[in-house]
Amino acid sequence: MDTNNPFAAGQEASIPGGPTLGDGRRVDLVAAVRDGTMTALRNVLPIGGGLFLVVLVYLASVCTCIGWMVSGPFMLHGMNRFMLSVVDGKPDFGAFTDGVTGPDPMRVFLHGWGVILLLMLLLVPSISVSIVVELAQEQGMVSSALGLTLSTVAGLLWAVVIAPLTYASYAWADRDLGALEAYTAAFAAFRPSWGALAALAVGLQVAFLPGVVIGPYMEAQSQAMATLPPDQALSGLGALFGLLGLLYGYMAVMGGVTMCWTLTAYRQVVPAQDLAA
């Protein structure tokens, strides 16, 4: 096996018939949301610390010679493993460094980029619609409200279509699979739960809808204030920053909660005890 090939088979998954996840379990949507929410509430501080650590690592990467292209796969690997440890009931900040301190960091890096690139490829249809809509808005063919609606609906529909495949990055970090194997194994394991995952995908989109709606409004307000005299601009700047803080706070909270939803659903299909070799 070529361990330098990001799409090659993982050693632990090289079994007859290809890699498998779980033993045919299905996602219980209600339990995933309920248990995931309770997990997030019980682990507010660890999750907040994990998100803060990811932000720090990202800033350090973009501000130094390391670069996010080097740290990206390790950040994704570490965040996935950390959140899995949270859902498993024992938050482990050491999981953030598993990819770097593990036996084969280069494998994590290459397979990680394989996972990221395949995800980007999957998102091409949705991104293409957003680009077309944005160009139509610039040409005055559609209004901002209609453009936002079209992009949101297209993104939602595509999230439903690819729902089982979105669990591939968890399988990669959790089971040491190759990039392509992670996608094929995730599709096979989560395809029977497509309906529940589609509903969960809708829930995720709705949870982040305030950011989608308020973001363009705040951008328009910022551009409007730039044209005002300094004294008038300053009077509205405080309110704008306050709204921005509330928005980022909301997005951070919902980010932690929704990660617990998706990882609880993942654990329903791939329990921790299945990790034994």
Class per helix and strand makeup: mainly alpha
The mean pLDDT is: 83
Put simply, the count of helices is 12
Q: Kindly report how far apart the N and C termini lie.
A: 19 Å
Q: What's a quick, concise take on this entry?
A:
With 277 residues, the protein is mainly α. It is built from twelve helices and no strands.
Explain what this protein looks like in three dimensions.
The N terminus is likely disordered. This protein is mainly α. It has one domain.
Helix and strand layout, with pairings?
Blueprint: H1 29-42, H2 44-63, H3 68-87, H4 98-101, H5 105-122, H6 124-138, H7 144-161, H8 168-175, H9 179-190, H10 194-207, H11 209-226, H12 230-269
Helix pairs in contact: 1-12, 2-3, 3-5, 3-8, 3-12, 5-8, 5-9, 6-7, 7-10, 8-9, 10-12, 11-12
Please supply descriptive tags for the structure shown above.
mainly alpha; globular; single chain; 12 helices; disordered N terminus; 277 residues
